[in-house]
Each structure stands twice: as structure tokens, then as C-alpha cells.
Amino acid sequence: MGHELCARVLSPGEWQGRTVVGLPWALDAGGTLRTVGYSSTFPGGFGERVVLQEAALVPVPEHVPAPVAALTEPLAVGFGNVARAAPPPGSGAVVIGAGPIGLGATAALVERGVAPVVVSEPSPRRRALAERFGAHVTVDPGAGDPFDVWSEASEPGQALTVLECSGKAGMFNTVLHRAPRSTKVLLIGACMTEDVFRPVVGIYKDITVTMCMAYPPEEFARTLGRIADGTVDAAALITGEVGLGGVGAALDTLRTPDDHVKVLVRPDVHGIGVHPPR
């Protein structure tokens, strides 16, 4: 873990001393692309030092605080995969999950002129953030079905893209059963367990599914640019801070994310508890 990071470069050369963010991808000695933080060869930002590829680095503007710049990566996953899918203006979208990735996707969809954008999220705090990021309608899935809400808000026959950003086991199967015919589905949230779905449902409905990992790399720098010019309020996502000794507490807190959106890990924070952001 720790692939969402902002760091100061220690290696000698033109980057030395600069504050950077970077695409969390690196080539190992055999030429295999690895994800920083998910590889024992390239551990992530929960340690004091991390290896990043020079080609993946993007300098952080001086006026952008490092803790805010660290939000570039998760927001870029949302922006980048929307750019990759390129839903046209006039089409609509349902976003499942309003964590940082889902919020980035929401802002990207609105930026492209996609409407309506319906965001499904159980946390009131995250639903409020989705509205700040431009969602036209938000829904608590415990109180209403996002696809019913979509049907009420959309025009007859309007094209739909569903962005599954929760990574929750069983959600893909639910999407297949509830989405209308010819829907495009982007699986962006990473379900880390085995999952079960019924393929024939998607086949009968001509649903197109894209499992999303890589996205246009230029979207990473563009996302930092949006943060820098204030188009995206990345600071609003930071709801808590921990030191390196509090990573376990942060992960436990986010298992039931009613109170938090993004807990920042800062080496200069002491103790093991979660603290309010500075």
C-alpha cells in the first residue's frame, strides 16, 4: 500500500530537493510493470523512502501543500478512466461509491458535460462531497435504488455509463441485474476478494464491461493541474491524519467510512490515533 503519495526527491540530479507526485508504476529488472505499494520490489509511501521512476514524476507547484498534492493519484484514477472511456456529452452516468476515486470520476463526468450524474453512496459526508464535486443527484443505496433514481432523472433511451468505484464484493453482479440494456460498465474500484456474478445476465442485455487499471498517463499531470488551479478541491477529501505508527488505526477507521473520506499519513505526526487535519 502507500501508492498515493507526495515526496521530496533525495537522489542527486535535476530533481533533487523538489517536491513531486508520481504515477505509481515502475518497471522491474525483467521489464514487468509493477504498481508501487503493491510490490515487494517497490514498497510504497508508508515507509520513509520509496523508489519512483523519473519518467513518472510530476513537480508540485509551490503553492500546493504536499498533503493536498498527495490526493492527485486517487483523483487521477477517476479522471483518467473517464477520459479513457470518453462518455459523450448528453449521455448519463451512475457512480457507485463516493470515495476519492468516485469523487474524481464524478468531477470528470461533469467536466465532460455528462448529465445527469447520479452518485450512490451510503455515507452522508461523502454524499455531500459528491454534490460539491458536481453530482446532479445523490442517493443513499440503503434508502433507494440508484437505477430507479437514474430512470426518473434521465431521458428515455439516454445512453448510460456505470462507474463501479466501491470495490465491494457482489456489487458488479447487482449492476448487471439492475442496469438497462446496452449500458457500459467501468470496474474501477478494486474488489480484493473472490467475487461471483452471472455472465448470462450481461450477455442478454448486451452490457459492455471494462476492467480499469491503466489510463492515459497525461491525465495524472492534468489532475494535479486541476488541484493547483482550484478546479478540484482536493483538500476537502482530507478528514483525518495519522503518523506512520497510526496506519493500522487509519485502515480500521476506513472499514466503516461514515466519518472519514481520506486519512492522510504524515511522518511528522506522532502517536497511533487518528487526528483532525491541520
TrEMBL record:
Query: Which keywords has UniProt assigned to this entry?
Result: Oxidoreductase
Q: Which Pfam family is one of this chain's hits?
A: ADH_zinc_N
- Domain (Alcohol dehydrogenase-like C-terminal) spans 100-227
Q: Which Gene3D superfamilies does its entry note?
A: Medium-chain alcohol dehydrogenases, catalytic domain, NAD(P)-binding Rossmann-like Domain
Recall the GO molecular function terms of this protein's record: oxidoreductase activity
Protein known as: Alcohol dehydrogenase
